[in-house]
Amino acid sequence: MTVDHEEFKLLTDTLRSREEEIQVCKREISQREDQLKILKQELQQTRRKLEEKIERLSTLIGVGSSINSTLDLDQLLTYLMACATKVMKAKDSSLMLVDDRTNELVFKIALGEKGKQVQEFRLKMGQGIAGQVALTGQPIVVSDAERDQRWERAIDLATGFETKSIMCVPIKLRDKIVGVIEVLNAGYSGPLSEEDLDIFSAFANTAAIALQNARLFAAIQYSLEHICDLLKSGALMTDESGELVMINTIARELLGFSNGDAVTTRDIAELKADKSISSLLQAAFDQAKPVKEVVQLGQDGGKKVQVDVAPVIDPNGMKIGTVAVLNEV
């Protein structure tokens, strides 16, 4: 069988056309593959950002929950700033409070390798980034500290730390600025963003709640102590872990402690008595209801003291300690 020239040419053109179509299809497939790769990368980035956001929010929720877990303000604020440092992927962080007597910022918490050195410094209102935030009440984000004239270099020069970026937000109580928190050289996922600022501001709000709770608790302690003094009653108070946080002069006298003694819950537990006062404190806390007993101290014929114990419960129903009023019978 023979193929004439025209037929051969037609066959060749057809093959060439098919090859071109195949090449076009290959290019389209390659483009689709590239698009799929880009889409996959975008999905991976979106997933990573969502996971990061979930992690940050989970940490923030955990910090918020910890507010009612302890009355130790230093412990709570240190934990809060450690979480903020981790979430913001920062090098160092600090929490400063306003000293109302001098109108200066003092370091309450300073984390990082230069933390101890940093705590020696004080900043005037308006001095440095932190001072500006405390003065104006407005957050400040600095991406390049070297180029920002507001930045205070003295601390870096004294400690050898190299500040590159700063995020600083105010701590407010009822619209009054009581301090600031800041992170240095943060970089969670690239340049600092509005989302970073929102998350960090939430940490400042949590710090404000912790400070408010501490002040309220201190006020309760002070009021209870002095009210009981006026009523000629002994008073003592424990926190949620059972540690003694307040004991007034009359309670010291009733229990046989001098004013100079550093009294602990263990000291009270070791008192010789027919009933354990520390057990009464614990019972009131565990049962979340008042306990009333007459306790005889020392040997037979010793002093008798009526002990009225009540649990301290916050507005959310959380048990945060106990209070006891003591009166000699």
TrEMBL record:
Residues 15-60 form a coiled coil. Residues 220-298 form the PAS domain. PROSITE patterns: PAS. InterPro entries: GAF (IPR003018), GAF-like_dom_sf (IPR029016), PAS (IPR000014), PAS-like_dom_sf (IPR035965). It comes from the Bacteria. Keywords: Coiled coil. It holds the Pfam family GAF. This is GAF domain-containing protein. It comes from Abyssobacteria bacterium (strain SURF_5).
